[in-house]
Design brief:
With 382 residues, the chain is of the alpha/beta class. The chain has helices at residues 63-71, 95-111, 126-131, 159-168, 190-198, 206-211, 216-221, 251-263, 284-300, 359-366, 372-381, and strands at 7-8, 28-30, 43-47, 83-89, 115-119, 140-145, 175-183, 202-205, 225-229, 269-273, 314-320, 327-333, 339-344, 352-357. One of its GO terms (biological process) is putrescine biosynthetic process from arginine, via agmatine.
């Protein structure tokens, strides 16, 4: 597939190396004159400037370029980096065309095990990210980090406020699980949260993330893709969205979540949406998002590839329970110390899934209680 026809090249000054030869600018292969070999890359950055799904309209400047200005001046982490920058995606004739253009591009990257990093544009562009997974012959899971839960009715509302509903109601369904992280409860209608609970999906309020950010790690570890809205950050930390909000994640918390996403062996695409450079007068938000991107890349290159639960890389724990089920099986990675829970369908013993969990889930089971993650997964298995 010739992906070059969908992209505009970048200006050379966006990728120009600093006086140091150790910055990321030295190691990226970017679309300047020649389209880079994305098939040989681990990660592919895609700039987006599509805002027809937003009620606020398009900003005057290109958000992805503003973030690139900071990102490529950061120091490369330890180890090798195989990163390409495909340039900026040309929007389709209609918003729907842009979604389907994203679908085709991301699906091609997934086929070659290249992880797309989507940067800029309104948050509804994650619908195109989502559609790419329809090409896979399996159910997938995803997670969204956002101050709001974008579940408005599609009729009469902008795409940016209804894209999540569209994904959850997509037919045919290829969705196994969904997690909503860092929402602010006073911005979300109670019936929306009740609907997610009825569907057996997990939610984690921003206060819960702040109390113990480790609670978010298993939810991000289960995701095949993650969609992150910059509006999840508080305005003082990242003044690059509209309307402003004084509450939300700190930059440090957002960077930690980006690390969790990058470190997830299963995750195959990452979207960072909603940045408006016209509100970012001192470049603070652009630097924050560039640093989040750096942490995502670092997390990716610290992946351990621990997915064979029968190997010697895992310790197996069996916990007896007084009721049904009579036993739960947990796995702990020896190197990562991450925990996993085996869930066998009560309706069909041939259906089994091993899902990420926490040490607290194991302790709860050891005390004779069923972890909530087992209950939710059991409901999803049907």
């Amino acid at each position: 597939m010739n992906l070059a026809i969908f992209f505009d090249p970048l200006r050379e000054e966006l990728i120009s190396a600093s006086s140091s030869s150790t910055t990321l600018a030295t190691y990226v292969s970017a679309f300047l004159d020649t389209f880079p070999d994305w098939r040989a890359a681990d990660l592919a950055l895609i700039g987006l400037d599509e805002w027809r799904g937003s009620a606020a309209g398009a900003p005057a400047d290109h958000g992805a370029n503003a973030i690139r200005n900071h990102f490529y001046q950061l120091q490369k982490g330890a180890g090798s980096v195989r990163l390409v920058d495909l340039g900026n995606l040309r929007p389709g004739l209609t918003l729907e065309d842009t979604y389907h253009r994203l679908r085709e591009i991301i699906a091609a990257l997934l086929e070659h095990n290249t992880v797309p990093i989507l940067l800029g544009g309104s948050h509804d562009l994650d619908y195109g990210q989502f559609l790419a997974y329809e090409t896979l012959d399996r159910a997938v899971s995803f997670a969204t980090v956002d101050a709001r839960v974008d579940m408005a009715e599609q009729d009469g509302s902008c795409a940016e406020r209804s894209h999540l509903r569209r994904m959850l109601m997509h037919e045919p369904s290829f969705l196994f699980n969904f997690a909503q992280l860092a929402h602010q409860q006073y911005l979300v209608a109670p019936d929306v949260l009740a609907a997610l609970e009825k569907l057996h999906f997990e939610t984690l309020r921003v206060g819960q993330v702040r109390d113990d950010i480790r609670q978010a790690e298993p939810l991000l570890r289960q995701a095949d893709f993650v969609s992150f809205d910059v509006a999840a950050l508080r305005w003082n930390d990242a003044p690059g969205y509209y309307p402003p909000n004084p509450f939300g994640l700190t930059n440090e918390e957002a960077a930690k979540l980006a690390w969790y996403a990058g470190h997830n062996d299963q995750l195959s695409s990452f979207g960072l949406y909603g940045y408006r450079p016209d509100h970012d007068h001192h470049g603070l938000a652009a630097m924050a998002l560039a640093t989040m991107l750096w942490y995502f890349v670092e997390g990716y290159y610290h992946r351990r590839g621990e997915t064979d639960f029968q190997s010697k890389r895992f310790i197996r724990y069996a916990v007896g329970l007084p009721g049904t089920p009579a036993k739960l099986v947990f796995y702990k990675g020896k190197r990562t110390e991450k925990w996993w829970l085996e869930v066998e369908s009560l309706a069909d013993s041939d259906i089994k899934r091993i899902v990420p969990c926490s040490y607290q889930d194991y302790l709860r089971a050891a005390q004779g209680d069923l972890p909530n993650r087992w209950i939710l997964t059991q409901a999803l298995l049907g």
